[in-house]
Design a protein that fits this description.
Elements (H helix, E strand, L loop, with lengths): L5 H7 L40 H14 L3 E5 L2 H9 L7 E5 L4 H10 L6 E5 L4 H7 L4 E7 L11 H11 L2 E5 L4 H4 L9 E5 L13 E5 L2 H14 L5 H11 L2 H20 L4 E5 L6 E6 L5 H6 L5 E2 L9 E3 L11 H6 L6 E5 L5 H24 L1
Parallel strand pairs: 2-3, 2-4, 4-5, 5-6, 10-11
Antiparallel strand pairs: 1-7, 6-7, 8-9, 9-12, 11-12
Helix pairs in contact: 2-9
GO biological process, one term: transsulfuration
Cofactor: pyridoxal 5'-phosphate
GO molecular function, one term: pyridoxal phosphate binding
């Protein structure tokens, strides 16, 4: 069979997995233990931390979607990042993108630095900055593209070359684009990470993380580590993620179409000083002229929800300064451009006209409120 289109792999995930019944939707196996015929006999399943049939379908699915040799389903995106970090040893250094997901920054700085890993940060649009930071201790490049919340894109082919030259792992967090828009392993990455809580599951109803990796040795190490530490995804949640992935292609189309319309609308709005939209996907950020507008704007949204997270069917607006990036020190935050006027919008799949009307109303109300408070 030819290599299937990503959209087809998404929709078919878990189908034809149960020969016995022909079930189209994958069965959920709760069994933790699996019977052995005798000594040395196994169906391939022994104990569910090591391997569970429902989780295995999702793991095979993400491997195929990302073009990897193996997949790993973890209890959260952070657990997936933890899994990848177990590849390293005290003294190892990782060079990462600067406006990285706040939770990842916290895990690096408050978590793994204590255990002897070091981290440096560079602007992904400036590969020379990365090159200058590489020492003999450097073992990996950790790239988020586009970055969060500033939507800066990295040219992965340049980072692939850099990783090859210096013998580094190229690790890419592909949460924002998903394999429908970008397949980092095709472009030279060794490891792809997802917070599946976002676009892959897509309905704001499950926390999950996925890893896909290239190369048998690397996959063996990751499998060993996941089984040892045990931050696996439950069978029910594995099923929910697969259920979500099935509609990812149509959802992503609508997210992108809406995001393009809304970016154009915001561009033309007098209260908005800047719109940051990379032209693909469903995520955009924008700056309002006046910090004082932010709170009244958020309070006057009636359709779009002011909440953390992204990638679900419902529109969510996030204020990075107090939410996703609250643990990044203010001077670091502002130096990288995550200032107090910046808002991040995960554009949902509602009617774009309704979303624009909601933004319009809330921006108008916010302007009124700031005018009144400055004149009083
Ligand atoms: C949300 C997110 C994570 C963390 O994933 P969880 O599922 O919330 O643990 C990691 N990276 C990016 C880019 C994210 O958006």
């Amino acid at each position: 069979m030819n290599r299937r289109n990503v959209a087809t792999i998404c929709t078919q995930i878990g189908n034809r997995s149960d020969e016995k019944t022909g079930a189209v939707s994958a069965p959920i196996y709760h069994s933790t233990a699996y019977r052995h015929e005798g000594i040395g006999c196994s169906t391939g399943y022994d104990y569910a931390r090591t391997k569970n049939p429902t989780r295995a379908l999702l793991e095979e699915g993400i491997a195929e979607l990302e073009g990897g040799d193996g997949g790993f389903a973890c209890s959260s995106g952070m657990a997936a990042i933890q899994l990848v970090l177990t590849l390293f040893e005290p003294g190892d250094d990782i060079v990462a993108t600067s406006d990285i997901y706040g939770g990842t920054y916290r895990l690096f700085e408050e978590g793994w630095r204590k255990w002897g890993l070091t981290f440096q940060y560079g602007d992904p649009r400036n590969p020379d900055m990365f090159r200058r930071m590489i020492t003999e201790k450097t073992k990996a490049l950790f790239i988020e593209t586009p970055t969060n919340p500033l939507m800066q894109e990295a040219d992965l082919s340049v980072y692939k070359q850099m990783a090859e030259e210096h013998g580094l792992y190229l690790i890419v967090d592909n949460t924002f684009y998903t394999p429908l828009i970008q397949r980092p392993i095709d472009e030279g990455a060794d490891i792809v990470i997802h917070s599946a809580s976002k676009y892959l599951a897509g309905h704001n109803d499950v926390i999950a993380g996925l890893v896909a990796a290239k190369g048998e040795k690397l996959c063996e190490r990751l499998a060993f580590s996941l089984n040892s530490a045990g931050q696996i995804l439950s069978p029910n949640d594995s099923w929910l993620v697969m259920r979500g992935i099935k509609t990812l292609p149509v959802r992503m189309k609508q997210h992108e179409e809406n995001a393009k319309e809304i970016a154009a609308y915001l561009e033309s709005h007098a209260s908005v000083s800047e719109v940051i939209y990379p032209g693909r996907g469903g995520m955009l950020s924008f700056r309002v002229n006046d910090e004082a507008c932010v709170d009244p704007f958020l309070r006057n949204l009636e359709l779009i929800t002011f909440a953390e997270s992204l990638g679900g069917v419902e529109s969510l607006l996030t204020y990075p300064a107090t939410q996703t990036h609250a643990d990044v020190p203010q001077n670091v935050r502002e130096a990288i451009g995550v200032d107090n006027c910046l808002l991040r919008y995960s554009v949902g799949i509602e009617s774009a006209a309704d979303l624009i009307a909601d933004l319009d109303y809330a921006l108008e109300k916010a302007e009124q409120a700031t005018r009144e408070s400055s004149s009083s």
